[in-house]
Protein 1
Amino acid sequence: MLHNIRLVGELGVTPAEAYAMYLDPDAHGRITGGPVEVAAREGAQFYAFGGALSGHILHLVPGRRIVQTWRSDAFGKADADSILVLTFLPKGRQHTLVDVQQLNVPARDCAGVSHGWESYYFAPWRKYIADRKRRHEERAEQARQNALAAKARQQAEAAA
């Protein structure tokens, strides 16, 4: 028996940023903790978690929606790929609701897929975003400190 899964995750970035992170193999890999093959073009292959997840990008609406085939290594050989639809919806100015619809998931993997989205995607994605924001703030503070130091040196040189 096949099941459909629908859930929503919230991320602290804009829909365009979340969309771009998912389709960027470097960012996606940092989120999931391993090499990822993905590209922002229809027909591109998708592999994550050492090949435990695989599929192909079917359709893209830039900054808004990703449709792809998707299967886990828990699917049986006779099982068809599921269809994953990720829709990135704005929530306020700097937040996104990621509406996940996964169609035709085999019963044997339904619980794993349902719980896996939070454990293997949304929780690490939120951590990646928080870490990225912290690094950005640290760089901005360092630049501010460098500018203050340079200004103090210029004032000292001018006074001498």
Note: Residues 107-159 form the longest helix (53 residues).
Protein 2
Amino acid sequence: MKRFLLTILVLVLVSVLTVSPGGCRDADHGDDNPALIVYEGLVIPASQDVISVQNIGDGVTGGDPDFCKPEQPDEWHFVLSQVVPRDAAPTAMTALFVNAGTVTVPRTDLSGPEHRGTAHYTLKGQHLDDTLVDGYAVRPATLQSHGPFVLSNAPCIQIPQYLLAISSSAGGSVTAPGEGSFTYDEGTVVALEATAEEGYRFVKWVGGPIDGVTSPATSITMQGDYSVTANFAEEEVPPAQYTLSISSTSGGSVTAPGEGSFTYDEGAVVALEATADEGYEFVKWVGGPVDGVTSPSTTITMQGDYSVTATFGEEEIPPVQYSLTVSSTAGGSVTAPGEGSFTYDEGTVVALEATAEEGYRFVKWAGEPIDGATNPQISITMQGDYSVTATFAEEVIPPVQYTLSISSSSGGSVTTPGEGTFTYDEGKVVNLVAEPSEGYRFVKWAGEPIDGATNPQISITMQGDYSVTATFVEEEIPPVQYSLTVSSSAGGSVTTPGEGSFTYDEGTVVALEATAEEGYRFVKWVGGPIDGVTSPATPARGVSPMMRARWLPSRPQQMRATSS
């Protein structure tokens, strides 16, 4: 099989029995002795199939005669690392010593994960005082790994070790490497990671060379014994914030905190101050929880977004003021505005109300400007200082009173006591007189207690509330009447309406009919408005309403039917 060099890192000449707890580490050799630094980590070329390490230890030109030779050598230990897969590592490797020749070194252990492990090769009891010249192992076809092979338990130079104590405050823990006490070789870089619990946050590291570091993930290089603590604190929930918009009307401004939009935490108490310009005065705040507040200095507690405006008005000159002194006599009191001295602005209208006690009555007000007023409810317009007194007197029980309502129909009126509604004490006798207008006459009274009475002059005794009406009608004029005298000549007669004298109202139409006797004929009518009419049947036109002739009763019309 083709062989080529892979880089194997070999740890040699380490006695398990004599290695101190601190272990050993490689000596520091410079570039002037490259054969002695192979073990520090070389990459195995992928094209090689032999793992090899050469020229290590005593006998090598320029080498350190004590480099691979412990004080009490017991075993040789070779390590093959980054084996993929782990189980494909060679079962043995060959070591060539100066004095003893070639020796097979068996694989004694596998460690690490299966997908990338480490193979350990140990030689005990022989050639331990000899010098290793070469070492190699044939690479199996199944070995996928290639990479640095490292030496463990190498030349016995003592490694100092230090203690690292790790703890945490409440609210979290150190998850890498954990909490407790750990031992590390000098120069080891230890990665630290602190993880906060829910509701907490990492604050900083305290102690050692990382004191004050605020990153939860950091590292520490071991140069001594250290004690570090991860500090946590409860996570602060940022408060809700709200906007306060402040403005003002003309005539002033908001001087604290100013005007515009401001942001405050929830619950913040903001002091507001409004300042009026000369000739103006602050009126009130408008908006938000201070709406209607009339003090220019106030506060607002932020529980939401608010918009407030300071309003100003022109400064008013205080009005002239006057005093009103109110009192009362025995028997009552002034209930509005009360009794005593009151101050009012000029022009104020003050309502006064006097209330009598039981058994008393209000009489009048005394004192300007309502002196003599008898209404217990009255008002005063303040134009000066006034003093008024409500006067009361013992109450006199008034008699029972009733109302009498009087009216009339058209054609006349009630002249005594007149028409309308009148109030009378009980038992009062009231005289009534009804007078008709021209062309009318009184008919009767209507309504209790004189219903149906026909005397236009009558009286009522008040025993209750009454309502009476005088009724009138037009006066009737008798019609003008006329007489109609009807006769006939020999040879016939007037059969309708007959012959003789008849009386008719003016305008009456009277039908006339003349009937001739046998041997005779009707000739004509003679007299009146039908004089000369030749028809035996005709109305008397002289009394027709169309003529409108007025005949006097002393001059009756004469009508005669003649015949031949």
Note: Confidence is low (pLDDT under 50) at residues 1-48, 53-73, 146-158, 541-557.
Protein 3
Amino acid sequence: MVSSASEDWQVSDGELQAFDVNDDDVAGRDPLDMVYDMAWAGRVREALDAAPKPMLVYCRTGAAACAMVLLRAAAARPKMKARDVHKTARSMGYDLETYTDIAQIVAATMSTKRKRIITT
């Protein structure tokens, strides 16, 4: 039996048809506003944690989505460092270091993660 995408993702056809790619994203950021900060990253992390799995993470360029998914994965890997996040992103076709705001989020998140690991 072939199922529709809406059945696989438990989304109604009406919800799929009503989806507006120009609408604000799940983290409440206007998608045309390309400035990312730690507050935005925190909202995205909360949304990713709360979202049903499997999930699709999307942004127009792919860089922010890639960074947030890799940072979420890095949280479960104590030995993973910021350079590992960048290396993995590059292997996927994204040079996160060209996005200054995203690179700063990666550095700050990985630095905070490292401090938590050292102090626990």
Note: Confidence is low (pLDDT under 50) at residues 1-8.
